[in-house]
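Database export, one record per block. Field names are fixed; values are copied verbatim from the stored entry.
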Amino acid sequence: MRPLLIPLALLIGSFALTACSTPPAAPTPTLVPLAGDETTATVMPTTRPLPSVTPLPTATATLAPTLTAVSATATATVAPGAVTPAVTVIGDAAIHVRSGPGTAYPIVGRLLPAVAAEVSGRDDNGAWWQITLPGGQRGWVAASLVRLTGEPAALPVVKVAPAPTVRPQPAPAGKIVFQESNGGSIYLVNADGSGLRRLTSGFDPALAPDGQRVAFTRWNEPRGVWIYDLRTNEEYLLVQANGARTPTWSPDGSELAFAWWRKTIPGRQVCIGDFCFDIPPEDYNGLATVRVDEKILRDLPASQTVQSPAWEPNGLRIVYRGKQGLKFTEPGSADAREDVLTANLFQESPAWSPDGQHLLVQTRLHDHRDIFMLDRNGRVVARLTANDPLADRAPNNVAPAWSPDGRQVIFLSDRSGSWQVTMMEADGSNPRLFLPAVFGQMTFRYDFAAERMFDWGS
């Protein structure tokens, strides 16, 4: 048995030597005990109170403004990412900015075309916007005259002091001659609504400067320019002319200018290579004058498509709509010739202000017509009528005529769906129905042939 123990002992010894020669494996950190002083050194930094935990005054000061900024952002009227409401003028003419939401408030500035103004509020019914002009001036504009971008729902309702008390205006003075339709009945009424009476029938009535005669035209025989005498209630043919339209009195009442048909240019066929097309016949409408006492027609140089002549109050020019825009002729000049006033093909029915400083025109805009004011040189001064952007359709505003003092304008509007006589101030403010008890019983028809519907004289 002893001989067997010796080899076994040798085998165990070799294993022991092999184990001692092999490098020890890395100890697992969780199993290697550390000395007590090492443990204390490791724990002390995590258990000792740190300065950063102690509330410091600087930390409090930093939090206060942060909270204030968040509060201000939360109460802003414009949500993050939303577009700030702004307005721009509809059209190419400046509009009035007023001190409050209504035409009774004073004018404090103008908003120019293509200039965006930030909107900061609205009135109770959303008919007026409070804006800030680029220079910082605040005011109000009518919602119907501007185009709004952005979301208006969050805009606050701004309360302002009542408008200044407006003194009652005296009843309008003078006489108004008007037609119901082309070739229809012609009436006369006092501007205060009294004295309505039917005169005759025809086209384009015009009241003489003395208020005692009415010029008009007829297309049925005997056709031409006619005069109705209000003193005798008699009418007579002044001069024969085919297709006569829109007579206009000279300032002294001694002459009339009018458009008339001169001839028809025959239609013809034009060919370019193998491609041919037809040009239809075209009427040649000229410009003529006639002295009331002589009854002799005098032809004037003018465009081939004269329409709606209007005699300047100083007597120097007759402005009319031509083929290329508004033109004028100087009838008293020895070498009378036509000249260009504007190049806008869509301006119609020019009407001089009593002082001769401005012209009213109706301008075709896409699918409707609106009324603009020009200066005497043809530059646009203001747009006097405009459509409501929320309306189902854009209304037509046509046939403007000045009051004798130049303070008001009357015109036809189909805003309600039918033609109604409307009055506004000369700056376009305060539009309202005019003499509804009188004009409400009429059935107006407008044919968009630049017809004159009214003439208001003294």
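Remark 1: The longest strand covers residues 255-265.
Remark 2: The radius of gyration is 43 Å.
End of record.
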